[in-house]
Amino acid sequence: MWDYSEKVLDLFYNPINQGAITDPQEPDVAVVYGEVGSIACGDALRLHLKIQESTETIQDASFQTFGCTSAIASSSALTEIIKQKTLDEALEITNKDIADYLGGLPEAKMHCSVMGQEALEAAIYKYRGIEVEQHEDDDGKLICSCYGISEPRIRRVIIENDLTTVEQVTNYVKAGGGCGTCQAGIEDLLIEVQQERTALSARVASEVASQATNKPLTPMQKINLIQQVIAEDVRPILLADGGDIELYDVDGDVVRVLLTGACGGCASSSETLKNSIETSLQAKVSSTIVVVPA
Ligand code: FES
């Protein structure tokens, strides 16, 4: 049995904004719909928008869906979220926003929130005369032929939702959930995205650090950089050993940290502080930093 939030159940039993929107044939008003999924795959959503053309504002939204509890609740939630937003504002909405509005969705049902976000995008691009396929697939290749899911789409959902496993990707976009032959390709994409993230973080850290050598950091820049070094260089090592770290305070060059988990009660924690954390912070933030326990 799925563990649904109260909001999901409420919107399932009492869906709002269900149905189509009739075009009133009024000046300055356009009615358009975007569609994703397919009935053959078990999920399909058509999202209708009524748009005030002069301001590009969504005056009304409704949906028709063929799907489960989560699909109905996600669609209802989406229509509520986007009303009175401009099209540009609506394009900023992610599937996470939909899931958050619902108080969360079971992970195996996250594809319903992704479907909502994609239907919204499809409707807006259609209104603007842009083919969604052109936008989404660019020159991307098809990864999952069972569900017709391209590389850019999988890449995007991995990045936007911080996904790390093939199973999660299947939960979010269904790719990999059929014959399974594409799972190796999904795995490769997960590794690629992770490598790109690591390379980007390293570049940002070194750029900030090189700025730091030329110009003193502001207190805010310094705290941000310390947080970044802890998150990227220190924390993964401690997590691997069953421990964790929290930045407690920064006072000038004194950085106070809280070691928790296995590191919290570890007899060698002060050694860890000196050798690992302080050395990293001295190398990347300031050579005068001293790390002490909170
Ligand atoms: S090709 Fe992706 S599950 Fe079959």
Task: Give structural notes.
The protein is α+β, with helices and mostly antiparallel strands. It has eleven helices and eight strands. The chain has helices spanning 6-13, 69-82, 87-91, 95-101, 110-127, 132-137, 151-161, 166-173, 183-214, 219-240, 269-284; strands at residues 29-38, 43-52, 57-66, 142-144, 149-150, 243-251, 254-261, 290-293. β1 and β2 form a beta hairpin. The longest helix is centred in the last third of the chain and has 32 residues, at 183-214. It binds FE2/S2 (inorganic) cluster. Residues 144-146, 175-182 line the site of FE2/S2 (inorganic) cluster.
Radius of gyration in whole Å, from Cα? 24 Å
Percent strand equals: 15-25%
Q: What would the principal axes of the Cα set say about the shape?
A: elongated
Describe the biggest sheet? 3 strands, antiparallel
- Our count of helices gives 11
Mean pLDDT: 86
Strand order of the largest sheet: 1-2-3
Number of strands: 8
Quick recap of the structure?
With 294 residues, the chain is of the alpha+beta class. The protein has helices at residues 6-13, 69-82, 87-91, 95-101, 110-127, 132-137, 151-161, 166-173, 183-214, 219-240, 269-284; strands spanning 29-38, 43-52, 57-66, 142-144, 149-150, 243-251, 254-261, 290-293.
